[in-house]
Amino acid sequence: MFRRHLNPLKSHSFFLFGARGTGKTSLLKETFANTKTLWIDLLRGQSELQFSEDPDSLSSMIDRQVPEWVIIDEVQKIPKLLDIVHLEIERRNTKFALTGSSARKLKRGAANLLAGRAFVYQLYPFTHLELGDTFDLALALQWGALPRILSCSSDEERALFLESYVESYLKEEIFQEQLTRKIIPFRKFLKIAAQANGTIVNFSNIAKDIAIDSNTVKTYFDILEDTLVGFYLPATDTSFRKQQIKSPKFYLFDTGVKRAIEGVSHLPIISAQEFGINFEHWLITELYKLNSYTRGGYEFSYLRTRGGLEIDLILRKPREKDIFIEIKSTSRVRSEHLAHLVSVKREHPSARCICLSQEVEARIIDGVEVLPWQMGFGELGLVF
């Protein structure tokens, strides 16, 4: 068993959000192993039916069992239960751990989000730090880092799991939750979104490809974000003299899931170009996860100008220098790889410019810090 970085405080009720299969239930079982709990799993049909028909029965169960903690798995399935949770927190200071794989249904249903009475945590697939010495970069790029992947004994098993995961997501999170009523165009959209992962989103072009309107495409991306299987990377608002592109990029939360949606998870990564694309995707999601776990406080963005200047990632924190990051999968960075960072350094001399790569030692080229990617997390303070 791998120790997770996320360690929820047991002094306060909390929400634990995360995409399906990230290990929320396992984490809570470990966290509350020696605690008297009332555990309610809303993925069980009988429990969902009971609390849908009679949310107040939760109070009766708490009265009978008087648990130290009440754990409700997949609380978004019955948003009305949060009114009872609110009541019980106020009535007897009962503590709750509430998991969810979709914030969308809670938001759209104007659910009671407890107004600060519950902290909010998010769980992701494994990080390389959690896996420690067992971490394998090639495995992470091809198959991702969902917990179930780590227990698979063969590539065939990994491929079948990811195919099943994608189908289950479509069926359970989208169709059954009625987040979209048209599953066929959404299925087509999802594949295009995976193919366009990490590129600038063009809602109009995608809409033309699947014969729907651009507002629906925007809604589909929002569904991916709200169901925690992807996130937007906005364009920076840092001022440059050149005209900047303002549309966001979008990243799926896991390299393996992205490749499974494309239908290529069973194929090895052979070309340097494909390796580079997947390395950039993995590293950005890894930074995103560790920024969340360490409470790093960075705001993420990217830069592209119409003149061709592009920076993969910009990290910004109040009262600190902006950090401009380029990601290169090569094991030998050359000066020409750093042209964009050097250009940024000239225009913003106070900025910190970093190239994360597969080099084995840190060095400086033309004022740019060239770092092994492993070292980069420590330099950014995103380690434990």
Architecture overview:
With 384 residues, the chain is of the alpha/beta class. It has two domains: 14-122, Rossmann fold (3-Layer(aba) Sandwich), CATH 3.40.50; 126-384, no CATH class. 42% of the residues lie in helices and 17% in strands. The protein is built from 16 helices and 13 strands. It has helices spanning 24-31, 45-53, 57-65, 81-92, 104-108, 128-131, 137-143, 147-151, 155-176, 183-195, 203-210, 214-226, 255-262, 272-293, 339-347, 373-379, and strands at residues 14-17, 37-41, 69-73, 95-100, 119-122, 230-233, 249-252, 299-304, 310-316, 323-327, 352-357, 363-365, 368-372. The strands form three sheets. It has a six-stranded mixed beta sheet with strand order 8-9-10-11-13-12, sandwiched between helices. Strands 2-3-4-1-5 form a five-stranded parallel beta sheet, sandwiched between helices. A two-stranded antiparallel ribbon has the order 6-7. A hairpin with a 5-residue loop joins strand 8 and strand 9 (310-316). The radius of gyration is 22 Å and the shape is globular. The chain starts with 13 loop residues before the first strand and ends in a 5-residue tail after the last helix.
